[in-house]
Amino acid sequence: MSFSHPDSIRRRPSKKERALLVGLVTQESTTHEATEHLNELARLADTAGAMEVGRHLQHRDHPEPSTYIGKGKLHDIVEDSAAKKCDVIIFDDELTGTQLRMIEKITKRKVLDRTGLILDIFASRARTNAAKTQVELAQLRYILPRLTRFWTHLSRQSGGIGTKGPGETQIETDRRIIGQRISTLKETLKKIDKQRATRRKRRSSTMQVAIVGYTNAGKSTLLNALTNTDVLAEDRLFATLDSTVRRWTLPNRTVLLSDTVGFIRKLPHHLVESFKSTLEEVKDADLLLHVVDASSPTTLEHIEAVKTTLRDLGASNTPVQWVFNKIDQATPEQLLECKQQYPQAVYVSAARYMGLDRLRKTVENRLEEDFLDFTLTLPITDFSVVSSLRTLAVIENECYDESSIHVSGRTSFDVLKGLSKKYNGQLDVFDAEGQRQAMDHVYS
């Protein structure tokens, strides 16, 4: 048995589903934060094809183990969902299988949690084979510990949001079959990973810059503005799932610029795990452009969410250049606060092409800030090495004689390390004061 890819499953009804949103205010949050979280949940619901008709917030020290919220609040939700003719109740956290099952039993309504909602959106966005495979794997990992709930839920399901992908397989689906499918998807992803690794290796002779940021921060719009291309850029959540790589011409070099899937608060770990191969572009980058929506009322929280995801990916040590986007939509007060906390950031409006020249110069300076001076003598037959150096280094002098090529300039530690292995004894490296450095000292 095999599962259909997400976009082959029954489509959503043309009429938007009516959704009731539910959140908690715990000891670790404030009412304001929880309200902002529900605002974001409303946008996620709208993206998935539902409209908010009401919301409930409850103050609790911690979630109720069986029903997430207390019995009194759950009773209120039963009455409110009936009065407002709700189709679905959406919770702003990941629920356990027991919680999902109990809430559905009591409310007689379809129930989604934040993770299931995000997975549903990803399923509807997946277009390439890689994205479809990654999303299906994430969905199955999410479903596996919740099978009992899905068996009872699917028997009366009639489509709508939260029903994309393997969530609509037949009732006899069991752990063994899903486990087999997960194994198959993992093998498929391994093959995709190998293909991507080969492509990345071919691109390794060029410096790489990756755009990261919270979803809908304007990453794809920035990529288009910087590279004069037309990657899909929409004012909606998770418009981009696959990494897109374009050549970007800077004042003194050409680099590869990649756009990545947007991050979000409480990004499901199933998705982070499944999309790790797509996000390898982030780990391999020489510099990250962390794009921030300067007009957002929750800018600082978005920044922390992205930082958390980068740590999960093992990319927290990659150099970062802050780029605050949408300055044309931000208030003077918002811009002042951003500039006070991030004075080294570049402030742009990708949609209006504002600040892009400064960004180009800043990125080039950041790429070169740790460069070391070098001189290299290599055989006349190794001209291809010189061609690669023109994209990976600042070449200050290049001359030829009958048998050799003599090159001097500045480049990165990693490039020098590779050159030293191939041209031992023919490469000299100098520090900022012009003093020659022994190779073992440079690499220590």
Structure in a nutshell:
The chain is α/β, with parallel strands linked by helices and 444 residues long. It contains 16 helices and 15 strands.
Biggest sheet overview: 6 strands, mixed
Q: What structural class is derived from the secondary structure elements?
A: alpha/beta
- Work out the helix count: 16
The portion of residues assigned to helices is 40-55%
The pLDDT mean sits at 83
CATH topology descriptor of the largest domain: Rossmann fold
For the biggest β-sheet, the strand order reads 6-7-5-8-9-10
* Count of discrete structural domains: 3
Sheet-strand content, in percent, reads 15-25%
If you had to describe this structure to a student in words, what would you say it looks like?
This protein is an alpha/beta fold and 444 residues long. The chain has three domains: 6-168, Rossmann fold; 207-367, 3-Layer(aba) Sandwich (Rossmann fold), CATH 3.40.50; 370-442, Alpha-Beta Plaits (2-Layer Sandwich), CATH 3.30.70. The chain has 16 helices and 15 strands. It has helices spanning 31-48, 71-83, 97-107, 114-125, 129-143, 147-154, 175-202, 219-227, 269-274, 280-284, 299-313, 332-341, 356-368, 383-392, 413-422, 439-442, and strands at residues 17-25, 50-59, 88-91, 110-113, 208-213, 244-249, 254-259, 287-293, 320-325, 346-347, 372-379, 393-400, 404-411, 427-430, 436-437. Strands 6-7-5-8-9-10 form a six-stranded mixed β-sheet, sandwiched between helices. The radius of gyration is 26 Å and the shape is elongated. The chain starts with 16 loop residues before the first strand and ends with a helix. Mean pLDDT is 83; it is low at 1-11, 153-158 and 166-171.
